[in-house]
Amino acid sequence: MWERIKELSNYLAEYLIGKGLDEDIAHFLNMLVNIAVVFVLWYFIHHITKRILLTAFQRFTNKTKTTFDDYLVKSNFPKYVSNIFPLLLLILTVPVVFEDYPKLLEVFEKLVDIYIILLTVFICRSLVRTTTNYMKRHERYHDKPIESYAQVLMIGFWSIGLIFIFSEITERSVLGFLISLGAASAIILFIFKDTILGFIASIQVSVNDIVRIGDWITFSKYGADGFVTEINLATVRVQNWDNTYTTIPTYNLIADSFHNWRGMQESPGRRIKRSLNIKQNSIRFINEEDIQKFEEYGLVAPYIKQRQQEINEYNLKLGINKKHLLNGRHQTNLGVFRNYALAYLKAHPQIHQEMTMMVRHLPPTTQGIPVEIYCFSADKRWEYYEAITADIFDHLIAAVPYFDLQLFESPSGDDIIKSLKHISGGK
């Protein structure tokens, strides 16, 4: 059969020579015709096998329950595999077509070898992409930096492919090329420094569970504040709250400091930590008249009664002179307000009652005494969290005057003008 194919490939040359045409010209024309025939056959086989394989894969994926074969189709695996059959045609026909032209035969054989190498790399790339996409859909791997490892594999496949292509073109052995490559390792390390650092960082990020896909992180250095959507070999992609995207070098996740809010996301509540600045000169002891008034405030009435009873017993025991409130122990309007705020938090339906809850003093400042509200909202969603916080502080700010307290506020231009007018007698 092989001899018969050779006879057919040389038929035109023999025919033209028999008609008196120059032998070199006849063989050259014969080669061109053979190239055209091979090209037509290659195109026909490529088109047919591609349609058959794509149709077969499509029907097969529609019948199976697994989604792995669906991802094979999406990654063009059948398309690359369909190139194998036309490639076999080239392997068989190239030696026949260029039989009379050994130099051209050598060139085309190298091109076929390079084609084989590239096709192998593309098939491997398709399998890596398929496996990556298939693993990402599973909850177990949803928050893992699979893309980083896939990129490392792809770099490895392309590196090996380029080494074999270079070896094919230069006709040097792969081992010799690797030896010469080792001599230039310093240059290679410099060129691929970011890739190597990114690979090491992605491993550390994964092993130490520093960041997962879906984590909310804040990285002020890069202006990132949002959810991690992708972890690659070189970069981490963050979708900010304004729907913009920020890319952060993967290595910086282990080299710099940033906030990861995963602990808050996994906890049953989200922390509220804000302060009201109370003017210090509005704080005072309360008298009997104040006590009677404050006892009308339902949330704080039990505290006032219990506390006043303890204070009366203490003062009576020590024989305290009640003429001056400075003597002995007495309640203050700020203390009553603090306990009112705590009672309000305990009664609030949107505050997590099993987590830390307190109303405390912070050190006095030039802006007054900060009274800090520290608690956790039961709803962690941002918009609901902000609404709950606003609701609490709306109420407490409005409640401050009821305890004869004042909030500190820096004077505005109008305040200064009014003060000056008052001093000058309204002029």
Span of the ends, CA to CA: 120 Å
Estimate the helix proportion, in percent. Answer: 55-70%
Strand order of the largest sheet: 4-3-2-1-5
Query: How many E strands?
Result: 8
SS content category: alpha+beta
What count of domains describes the coordinates?
4
Question: Count the helices. How many?
Answer: 18
Q: What would the principal axes of the Cα set say about the shape?
A: elongated
Low-pLDDT regions = none
The largest sheet is: 5 strands, antiparallel
- Average the pLDDT over all residues and give the rounded result: 79
Radius of gyration: 41 Å
What proportion of the residues form beta strands (DSSP E)? 5-15%
How would you characterize the overall build of this protein?
The strands form 2 sheets. Strands 4-3-2-1-5 form a 5-stranded antiparallel sheet. The chain contains 18 helices and 8 strands. It has 4 domains: 2-137, no CATH class; 141-151 and 171-266, SH3 type barrels (Roll); 267-284 and 336-427, 2-Layer Sandwich (Alpha-Beta Plaits); 286-331, no CATH class. It is an alpha+beta fold and 427 residues long. Helix content is 59%, strand content 11%. Strand 3 (235-240) and strand 4 (245-249) form a beta hairpin.
